[in-house]
Amino acid sequence: MLVPILRQGPYLIASIQSALTDADLLRLRDDLVEQVGRYRSRGVIVDVTVLDVMDSFAVRTISSLAQMIKLRGAETLLVGIQPEVAFTMVQLGLALTGVATALDLEEGLSYLDERDKGGERVGGR
Amino acid sequence: MPQRIAVQANVQPTADLLSELVAHLGQNRTQLREEWARRITESVLLTAMTKDEIFAEATSVYDNYVEVLETGSVEALQAYARNLSERIIPRGVETHEVVGIVLLLRDVLARSLFKKYQADFGLLNRVLDAYEPAANRIANTVAVGFVQERERIIRQQQEAIRELSTPVLQVRERLLILPIIGIVDSQRARQLTEQLLRGIRSNRAKVVVMDITGVPSVDSTVANHLVQTVEASRLLGATVIVTGLSPEIAQTLVTIGVDLTKMNTVGDLQGGIEEAERLLGYDVTSTGRLAAAHGDRE
């Protein structure tokens, strides 16, 4: 299932709509890495609100996606992780190091705005 | 043929001997009961109870005891032991006391048997053969009943403590505090983390101050639980500030080498809240009205 990627000002928003296969995830990664350069985006937000399972492959793919996007000069923000998913990830030792996080899309956008303005940082890191 | 007789001698008379035994214990009820109560007082057992109470309970135990010898069924005694335990546990009666008095009763009765059958050693032996297994079973039943009751109470209390769940409180918009009091085991840590994550989401919190002043000790398991809680909160976009690490806990953590670099720690709850306010962009200033308000009241 294709993940829609929306442009919102200087940011890209990938809003996941349903459970993704491994291939879908890789496709999402490739699309984002490509588009972040094409649209000269400063930040990428991946919204995982609908996911109630995040396996190790998903976590690894998102980590690598964040690293790639960093190399392309933008920041990745993961938003909408469910409490149960967060708990399971931590228990399995799947910490998303190097990926900033926020509660939901709204928080994520305001976090990126703050960061662009050079304001004080809260949360995430 | 002699073999057959031996078998009969072993099996057949046991019931007769037991009923004779029961009759003996029935006849000497008053005297044996008093002797037993005297021995209990002498051994300084059941100090939490008065003499009259001891005597009353002794009577009930004695009658139940004789009944078990008579019927061979421990069910009534089991129920009685549970009931007794329920009454005496809140008064601080210890396991050794309960086991002690039952063993004393066994000894008192055995002595009286020795005395009665001292003339006939063979008969005494057979009487004891009949008496001892029954007596041991009774002692077992009472002790197990007592311990089970105690365990039930302990379980009940654990449940009660668990239900006094850790509150997640909002002190300012986007700022939660989580005061942890008492021992943190795996189950509680799990519950605590789940509660905190839910709290973060429903209050849209950005900063959480986790105060562990009330946690008596921290070992590597607890420390790892704390690290996990911090990590999970981060995944929801909230920063966790841990406060109230006592000098002992700080030393323990450093000694056992738990990696706390991911944790943001501040000395006490006040400092934690101030740091959180700074992160959230609050600027709390005193209006200087405290003195005036104080003056008004006077």
Structure in a nutshell:
The complex is a heterodimer of chains A (125) and B (298). Chain A has 125 residues and is of the alpha/beta class.
How would you describe what is shown here?
Chain A has 125 residues and is of the alpha/beta class. Chain A has helices spanning 22-38, 56-71, 83-91, 105-117, and strands at residues 5-8, 11-15, 43-47, 75-79, 100-102. In chain A, helix 1 (22-38) links the parallel strand 2 (11-15) and strand 3 (43-47). Chain A is globular, with a radius of gyration of 13 Å. Helices cover 68% and strands 9% of the residues of chain B. Chain B has 11 helices and 5 strands; from the N terminus they run ααααααββαβαβαβαα. In chain B, strand 3 (207-214), helix 8 and strand 4 (239-243) form a beta-alpha-beta unit. In chain B, helix 1 crosses helix 6 (121-163), helix 3 (51-71) runs antiparallel to helix 4 (75-88) and helix 4 crosses helix 6 (121-163). The N and C termini of chain B lie far apart (108 Å). Classes of the chains: A alpha/beta (125), B alpha/beta (298). At the A-B interface, helix 3 and helix 4 of A face helix 7 and helix 8 of B.
The oligomeric state of the chains shown is heterodimer
What is the count of helical runs of chain A? 4
| DSSP strand content of chain B | 5-15%
CATH classification class of chain A? Alpha Beta
The percent of residues in helical segments of chain A reads: 40-55%
Keywords:
heterodimer; A: 125 residues; 5 strands; 44% helix; B: 298 residues; alpha/beta; 11 helices; 68% helix
